[in-house]
What does this fold into?
Amino acid sequence: MSQLVVTQLSAGSALWSQVNDLLVFGAWLFFVLSLIVVCALGLHLMVLTTVFLLHRKKGIALQAQYAALPLPSVLPRVLIQLPTFNEPGVVERALESAAAVDWPRDRLRIQLLDDSIDGTDEIGRRKAAELRARGIDVEVIHRTNREGFKAGALKNGLTHDDCEFVAIFDADFIPPADVLKRTIPVLAADARIAYVQTRWDHINQDANLLTRAQSIMLDAHFAVEQAARNWSGLFMPFNGTGGVWRRKAIDDAGGWEGDTLTEDIDLAIRAAMKGWTTAFLPSVAIPGELPENVPAWRQQQFRWTKGFTQVALKLLPQVYRSDRLTFWQKFAMTFQLFQGWAYPAGALALFSALAAMVLTSTQPWGIFFLGVFSTAFGGVSVFAMTMAGQLQLKRRLGLRTLVSFFTMLALNGGLTLSNTRSIWEAVRGTPSAFVRTPKGRDAELDKARPTKGHSGLGELVLAVGATAVAIWDEAWYSPFFALTVFGLALVGSATLTARLARQA
It folds into this structure.
């Protein structure tokens, strides 16, 4: 009898050994696959940085050409749209800055597109009445159903006016007085241009470490990524604010649609498929406010990442059937729309590595080298684009820049779970509201509750678990996960603290 038990135990042990070996193989396989995706996305950033450097002289010449363009002999009518939702702290400033734009009063109209439910519309109405008394054409359009969210508000506003050009500024942006005198000549000189995108600047970039990290990230996007795409003939998306559209292009592309959370890139791609081109004016900087707390920033990134995936699922089949776009434009557009998939790839790498740590103490040398290479290559790619952006904008470099850079890496690592969830929701077709990002004074006044599932506990549990497993297993790649784990702990604790404070 005892011999039978020993035999059964031995067979069970052999079976478990085979199962364990299979699980370890699967963990390393997923780890390798996820790192290949990370490397591909890192290569995408490196290629964009190289394209920017190769076309930089062309871009400088193009900016000089744009600056020399004269105003049209007959100035066109321009509509400024200011979409707002529960932003009482900035709505008066938004109207005042729009009214200060240097353009003939009989050629300029301002629309405050207010979907607010907190009384912001009353503040806007009082300010609009004051501006009208000064001879400025201002209209407040208040909706109560918020259908289509921001896209719906913009679309509804266009039914009230037929201006040839439409400038769009979010409520927290402050356009310079000469913004139309520098953008309209570009649109007037080339009837093929759908929109002119300006560069975002930052009102509050020195508020804290989070805003400094965001500022260098956005500087890289505008100074390098957007410039590289536009100057090389690739697709350059509209950024939702700080741009001037040709009304004819909006209508030709099918108008604003609210079925994704990124209505800006949705309309821009549809315009590109109709043969419209774009212009980029990085010399025109429009300052806006950055989120000053982690939960608000996390909420913004969730919306952007989900929206990009929604647009990819909606439009990429049409993009590849389009005969107006070149192969390279389609290819670059695909990478652009799927760049957020670095987050699920990072999540897969983290979970599979943790599983391998638990199941075995042996790590193949090939995987070691791949881990080192992918980590180094990804970091170098991001660093190259970031520093190129800082140099292009003539920012002052120093220790503070490096601290902001590593904070940026950590914070993005901290979005691994949240943005993976956003992509999963997009793939499943799970609907969600367009949740605005509270900023500056409105962040203090904001009464919106954190969305369901965004408590921060998931990030904290994963950060603690990953740290414990890495210490227990003495894994060689623990240092490579340090920034991600730190970011998860930071984002999770900040989100949980904010949630508890709201419930108090």
